[in-house]
């Protein structure tokens, strides 16, 4: 007879975090705020953090909010700017469009018989083309006018009235973020050790007993260890040799070149969105932080070498002096993010690629899940709990991998070997059901949610996380690429009339917003300089 696996319940008091990048400090601040743990952060001075200017999801702002920091406190210190979404430039040569961060594809009509309808139904019913949709879409109009999505001292949100006030996504400077988080953690009493973890002593059941640091006599021990050591992944890779599951066969980009550039005209250049520009062998991000512009070319080295890639991005942005940072990566994730008494967060847990800027959201979610479960179990940790969180993580990874994949697969751009071949690769089995479900018609939020959050029971009172992107985001992407234009016939004449009226109402409301809301950079400047 099979014996049940013996699991150790660990009473968590001392938490050791390896790594002083964004994920290490995010984990530390969240756990310190609980005021029940002793938290230690060990940070190597030899291994740099990933310091590109970064774009985030609303989940990251919510994380800081939940941790007890208001936007007014952290945004200026993190050199943050608002992000209404990702602007896709050149992916569809006939249409520039935005996938928004705030789910502005709102519901417009509830019916007694047929459920609710959204703005996407109205767009289809009235026969909007991809371009018509962009020109109508409130977030696109705001973004293209370089306006702040907030105004006034109260930071009134342009979207209020449509949805609950959304937690705005931001773009920020990673170095400033780390500095902010570290300073706050020091105030909250973190133990900060500068040193490199080189090995670990395990007990006879394979649990980490203590970490061995280079050039330090004393070893460091705790109850729970969090591996935030980035691509180095010292505990999961070196100590546990936990397999890395590559997804490169369908997400082939494997290098990035990051370059910063000073503003020449910040009122025009500091746009309230992240721009994703299609390039010959990948795509380029443009991320305005408050201080400067961060650019990065994400490419696949099968199609272009690093020198040519650097030449391509420098030519595109006309910047020849600032240093270029080359960052190789391998898209994939760990087989599990929890082994014994060790838990992985950040790049050591996984990294798909920068498109749609999801990694810090993963970080926020995995830390949040750990915190919630520890709270539910009164700080007892065991492997079953770890493996549950690991499954939630895999579900989020599958969601994002499909979403990113669909960007490449469904984009009309098809004029270089990279863009041709990425469309010819076989669709992975995991993605095929979503591909089939969405390629010809949009999904309702309910069907979409059920497909994404499948077979995942809650653990105690902690429910599985909602997908990072909603059905509306998938719609925006597919519509932006020019799909779904054949679907008009399925709506009644009454609904078409109603749709025209609702779209006009929203459009004229937006005309008012465009006249009232301030320039993005000016708004931030007035705010940041008043502090
Ligand atoms: C090219 C690129 C672009 C990206 N763009 C985005 C984006 O737009 N949006 C987004 O959300 N995410 C993005 N990401 C991901 C994001 O950068 C990371 O999620 C984030 O920076 C967190 O990284 P980290 O803390 O896990 O690792 P790192 O920043 O690499 O930090 C690792 C830390 O571990 C320490 N360390 C390593 N080994 C040891 C050891 N043996 N002992 C002690 N300490 C050790 C290092 O010194 C460092 O402090 C991007 C990533 C890449 C590569």
Could you explain how this protein is built, in words?
The chain is α+β, with helices and mostly antiparallel strands and 531 residues long. It has a single domain (11-516), classed as FAD/NAD(P)-binding domain, CATH 3.50.50. The protein contains 18 helices and 27 strands. A 7-stranded mixed beta sheet has the order 7-6-19-20-21-18-22. A 6-stranded mixed beta sheet has the order 13-3-2-16-25-24. A 3-stranded antiparallel beta sheet has the order 4-12-5. β10 and β11 form a beta hairpin. The radius of gyration is 23 Å and the shape is globular. The chain starts with 9 loop residues before the first strand and ends with a helix. The model has no long low-confidence stretch (mean pLDDT 92). The chain binds flavin-adenine dinucleotide (FAD). Flavin-adenine dinucleotide binds next to α1, β3, β4 and α11.
Q: Give, in spatial order, the strands making up the sheet with the most strands.
A: 7-6-19-20-21-18-22
N-to-C CA distance: 68 Å
CATH topology: FAD/NAD(P)-binding domain
Bound molecules: flavin-adenine dinucleotide
Count the beta strands: 27
Mean pLDDT reading: 92
Please estimate the helix content: 25-40%
> Which structural class do you get from the secondary structure elements?
alpha+beta
The outline comes out as globular
Tally the helices.
18
């Amino acid at each position: 007879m099979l014996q049940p696996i013996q699991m150790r319940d660990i009473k968590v008091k001392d938490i050791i975090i390896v790594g002083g990048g964004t994920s290490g400090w995010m984990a530390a601040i969240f756990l310190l705020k609980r005021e029940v743990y002793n938290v230690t952060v060990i940070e190597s001075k030899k291994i740099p953090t990933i310091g590109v200017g970064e774009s985030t999801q609303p989940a990251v702002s919510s994380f800081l909010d939940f941790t007890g920091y208001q936007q007014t406190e952290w945004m200026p210190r993190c050199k943050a700017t608002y992000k209404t979404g990702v602007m896709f430039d050149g992916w569809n040569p006939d249409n520039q469009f935005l996938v928004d961060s705030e789910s502005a594809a709102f519901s417009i009509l509830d019916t007694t018989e047929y459920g609710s309808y959204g703005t996407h139904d109205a767009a289809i019913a009235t026969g909007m083309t991809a371009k018509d949709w962009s020109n109508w879409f409130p977030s696109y109009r705001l973004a293209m006018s370089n306006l702040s999505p907030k105004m006034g001292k109260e930071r009134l949100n342009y979207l209020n009235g449509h949805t609950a006030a959304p937690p705005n996504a931001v773009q920020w400077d990673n170095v400033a973020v780390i500095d902010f988080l570290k300073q706050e953690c020091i105030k909250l009493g973190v133990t900060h050790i500068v040193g490199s973890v080189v090995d670990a002593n395990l007990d006879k059941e394979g649990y980490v007993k203590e970490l061995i640091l280079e050039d330090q006599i004393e070893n460091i021990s705790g109850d729970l260890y969090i591996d935030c050591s980035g691509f180095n992944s010292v505990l999961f890779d070196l100590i546990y040799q936990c397999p890395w599951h590559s997804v490169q066969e369908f997400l082939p980009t494997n290098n990035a070149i990051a370059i910063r550039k000073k503003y020449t005209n910040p009122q025009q250049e500091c746009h309230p969105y992240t721009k994703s520009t299609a390039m010959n062998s990948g795509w380029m991000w443009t991320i305005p932080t408050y201080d400067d512009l961060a650019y990065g070319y994400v490419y696949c080295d099968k199609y272009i070498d690093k020198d040519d890639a650097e030449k391509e991005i420098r030519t595109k942005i006309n910047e020849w002096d600032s240093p270029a940072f080359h960052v190789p990566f391998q898209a994939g994730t760990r087989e599990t993010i929890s082994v014994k008494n060790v838990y992985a967060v950040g790049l050591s847990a996984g990294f798909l690629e920068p498109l749609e800027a999801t990694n810090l959201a993963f970080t926020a979610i995995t830390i949040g899940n750990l915190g919630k479960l520890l709270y539910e179990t009164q700080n007892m940790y065991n492997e079953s709990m770890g493996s549950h969180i690991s499954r939630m993580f895999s579900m989020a990874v599958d969601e994002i991998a499909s979403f990113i994949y669909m960007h490449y697969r469904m984009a009309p751009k098809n004029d270089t070997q990279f863009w041709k071949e990425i469309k010819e690769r076989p669709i992975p089995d995991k993605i095929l059901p979503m591909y089939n479900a969405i390629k010809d018609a949009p999904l309702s939020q309910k069907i979409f949610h059920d497909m994404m959050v499948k077979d995942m029971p809650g653990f105690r009172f902690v429910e599985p996380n909602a997908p990072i992107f909603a059905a509306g985001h998938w719609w925006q992407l597919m519509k932006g690429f020019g799909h779904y234009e054949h679907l008009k016939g399925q709506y009644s004449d009454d609904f078409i009339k109603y749709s025209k009226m609702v779209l006009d109402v929203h459009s004229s409301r937006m005309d008012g917003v465009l006249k009232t809301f301030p320039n993005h950079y000016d708004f931030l400047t007035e705010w940041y300089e008043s502090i």
